[in-house]
TrEMBL record:
Pfam family, one: Response_reg
InterPro entries: AAA+_ATPase (IPR003593), AAA_lid_NorR (IPR058031), CheY-like_superfamily (IPR011006), Homeodomain-like_sf (IPR009057), HTH_Fis (IPR002197), P-loop_NTPase (IPR027417), Sig_transdc_resp-reg_receiver (IPR001789), Sigma_54_int (IPR002078)
Domain Response regulatory: 3-118
Organism lineage: Bacteria, Pseudomonadati, Myxococcota, Myxococcia, Myxococcales
Species: Corallococcus praedator
Major subcellular location class: cytoplasm
Region of interest (Disordered), ranges: 464-483
Gene3D superfamilies membership: 1.10.8.60, 3.40.50.2300, Homeodomain-like, P-loop containing nucleotide triphosphate hydrolases
Name of the molecule in the record: DNA-binding transcriptional regulator NtrC
Residues covered by the Sigma-54 factor interaction domain: 143-372
Stored SMART domains: AAA (SM00382), REC (SM00448)
UniProt-annotated location(s): Cytoplasm
Length: 483
């Protein structure tokens, strides 16, 4: 959903174009034809993004822009200009505008710019909560997990967020570095100023310098006008340099200078520009090793690493895997229209045993795949992608160690119901295995077990605590009537 405010006196074309790209009810487009009405609209309710014409009937776009900044500096503002007014738009970029587009509008570019701006707005606004307790439904942007290593991460965020220092975030891909960067920003004194991110690995080397520092007209072939880079645009705010380990060596010296002296020159320019940006850098690479191999400047590594936070890989977070899985099953279940109320213990065991090379991002993907396959109200192992369902050699008894553990556990707890408990445990294992082999078809599972479907259903209800049925052939099963 994009909430767009268009401030432009051109009633004929542009409002219709923006509405065509972002149609209701999925999106919301407000339109104001004067600066005054536009500002009133921002005061009533801040939009995700503002499209602002530079030439308005009552005041200049730049004046309106300054007033928007004073109301809320985090709203990304995209200027709409005639080619001849582009210099003013560049001036606005120096003061933190998000981008500018020329009239007549290129709809593809307009759509892309508004989507990017919405994403930037989301990053700044959606609060990142630090969740040491099991999460609840509202915890969309929460950092979830209470394992000792994550508690250390929360402590580090608390210690350093308000200090205006550079922070280096390390950890494998998908461990939550971007989420931590946003938490640092939101808990800092700069939380009302912009937060921008740049993925250093995603931008071709020859464009990266200009993206970061801007360029002057004629600096290189194709540089037909001045461009403002992220360090200038983000003055007063926070800049995340994602994948900083992939930054070319030549550029690293320039980054070091901005960090130390807060000055730089645009590509092809002589003017020294001062900037006040808090840098958060992140990488999945081992910068110490890279700098030992002279592939990353040691001085920059030391400068970035004054305060670093390491995100542990998911496989080292113990019970956090189950906590995250429950959270995502609730969240994605609601999004995908699946009424899964429980994750079977065997499913959790498989999740806990998986190496999670892609970390939380991989867990999200696995659970989405499982939910798409799932039916019934319990997430069974058979719904997991095959990667997580180990192929068992014929005759290998995987139940035995689990059953032994279970018995030892109950003995340690001095149970007086072990006979019934062990039988239930065995039943749980047996029914899950048979349902897996029947692809969730309860009638076929009942035939394999040699019991009626009704008996199987009663057993399943008894074995799963909330009294719900785990399998997915309800109602449509041709055998239902005969049981
Ligand atoms: N502890 C966590 N609690 C909840 N969600 C998390 C957690 N860690 C990561 N995520 C989610 O996992 C996904 C990947 O996280 P993020 O993009 O922050 O990882 P990253 O380390 O920056 O990855 P990359 O290096 O590949 O960019 C996001 O959707 C994020 O919200």
């Amino acid at each position: 959903m994009a909430d767009v405010l268009l401030i432009d006196d051109d009633a004929a074309v542009i409002p219709a174009q923006v509405r065509q790209l972002f149609p209701a009810p999925a999106h919301r487009v407000r339109w104001a034809s004067t600066g005054r009405d536009g500002l009133a609209s921002v005061r009533r309710e801040a939009p995700d993004v503002i499209l602002l014409d530079l030439m308005l009937p009552d005041q200049s776009g730049l004046e309106v822009y300054q007033q928007i900044r004073a109301l809320d500096a985090r709203i990304p503002v995209v200027f709409i200009t005639m080619a001849k007014t582009a210099d003013t738009a560049i001036e606005a970029m120096k003061h933190g505008a998000f981008n500018y587009l020329h009239k007549p509008l290129d709809l593809v570019q307009l759509g892309q710019t508004v989507r990017e701006a919405c994403e930037v707005a989301r990053r700044m606004r959606s609060p990142v909560l630090l969740n040491e307790e099991p999460p609840d439904e509202r915890a969309e942007g929460s950092l979830i997990g209470g394992c000792p290593a994550m508690l250390e991460v929360y402590k580090s965020i608390g210690r350093v967020a308000a200090q205006d220092v550079t922070v280096l975030l390390t950890g494998e891909s998908g461990t939550g570095k971007e989420l931590v960067a946003r938490a640092l920003y939101q808990h800092s004194a700069r939380s009302k100023a912009p937060f921008l991110a740049l993925n250093c690995a995603a931008i071709p080397e020859h464009l990266l310098e200009s993206e970061l520092f801007g360029h002057e007209k004629g600096a290189f072939t194709g540089a037909d006008r001045r461009r403002i880079g992220k360090f200038e645009q983000c003055n007063g705010g926070t800049l995340l340099l994602d994948e900083v380990g992939d930054m070319p060596l030549a550029l690293q010296a320039k980054i070091l200078r901005v960090l130390q002296e807060r000055t730089f020159e645009r590509v092809g320019g002589n003017e020294t520009i001062h900037t006040d940006v808090r840098v958060i850098a992140s990488t999945h690479r081992d910068l110490a090793r890279l700098s030992a191999q002279e592939r990353f400047r040691a001085d920059l590594f030391y400068r970035l690493g004054v305060f670093s936070i390491h995100l542990p890989p998911l496989r080292e977070r113990g019970d956090d895997v189950a906590t995250l899985a429950r959270h995502y099953v609730r969240r994605f279940g609601a999004e995908l229209g699946r009424d899964i109320r429980e994750i079977a213990p065997e499913t959790l065991e498989r999740l806990a045993a998986h190496p999670w090379k892609g970390n939380v991002r991989e867990l999200q993907s696995v659970l989405k795949q499982a939910l798409l396959k799932a039916s019934g109200t319990v997430l069974l192992p058979l719904f997991l992608p095959s990667l997580l369902n180990p192929v068992r050699p014929p005759g290998a008894g995987v139940a035995q160690p689990a059953l032994e553990d279970f018995i030892q556990q109950r003995l340690a707890l001095k149970t007086t119901q072990l006979y019934a408990e062990a039988h239930d445990e065995l039943d749980r294992f047996l029914l899950t295995a048979v349902l897996e082999s029947s692809q969730g078809n309860q009638s076929q599972a009942a035939r394999t077990l040699g019991v009626s479907r009704q008996t199987l259903r009663l057993k399943l209800r008894a074995l799963f605590p909330n009294g719900t049925e785990p399998s997915g052939e309800d109602g449509s099963d041709p055998d239902l009537a005969s049981n």
